[in-house]
Amino acid sequence: MNDLRVNDLRSISLNVRDLAASADFYGRVWGLEKVSQDAGSIYFRTTGANHHSLSIHEAPLASLNCVTFAAPDKATVLALHAKALSMGVEVVEAPAGLAQVAGGGFGFSLRSPEGHVFRISADVAAHSSAIEDRTRPNRLSHVVINSVDRVQHEAFFRDSLGFRLSDATDHLTFLRCAKDHHSIALAKAKGSCIHHIAYELPDLDSLLFGAGRVRELGVEMEYGVGRHGPGNNVYSFFIEPNGFASEYTTGMDQIEDEASYVAHDQKWWDSQGLRRPDRWGMVGRRSERLLLATSGKLVNDWNESCTDAISRKMAS
Ligand SMILES: [Fe+2]
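That is the input. Now the predicted structure with fe (ii) ion docked in place:
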């Protein structure tokens, strides 16, 4: 089967240290809506149809728990599992009903070469109606992962899960599994962890209203509003209570014609004459706090120790 692949980014699951504080942020500030809760876990939906786009689980340390991709059907789940086994990829959960996950479905999970767990699922429950509020995220857009060995990590996504290369710069590799220019990106780094997590807003006006709400509720915007080069999406970055960099985004390029699409490298992007770091030329540098967050250095180090670390970095 040449076209064996996952076909969407479904959800992300995070371990968090303070479930109540995290739930308050994701509900009241970030605009997600709680759909279910059990001992130590809360599931949040966006305004779209996906059963949930985020789950948070109370744990001693904040970390990435897993990322879930959608498969079109159970047969594809089974075929991807068989392929993973044939390639020697570590399977964490064998294919089975997902009764332990809100929304259920059928799926399996595997571990990437850098130790992250990815679940592939089908037949998951969905909402029959959208929430009518354009200032809130309508779905999970993309997850960017700091990677020690981008070549090996890229091969995992391409060979095991059917991702395709959209673009590769000196610092980022953009991979797609649907029409979105990227659902996963890999950032060049010395450690492997979350770089940032992005949620989609319906359009630019929606993003601006949403980002305005986040700021009004006391969470400063660390970078943006700007428009990226690769992907062409609009961005605004914040930092959530566990120290994960979190993005509101909109307007990502859609790859409608797989056959004619050509991935470009840094040299090609340099030749395009685009303003940097954003196409509009409106945005300054990333904040020091965001640089720490995207390198994973704020996670588990959020309060005073984090402030101290930022002060030291800014003073040096
Ligand atoms: Fe992003």
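Residues 142, 144, 196, 198, 235, 247, 249 surround fe (ii) ion (CB under 6 Å).
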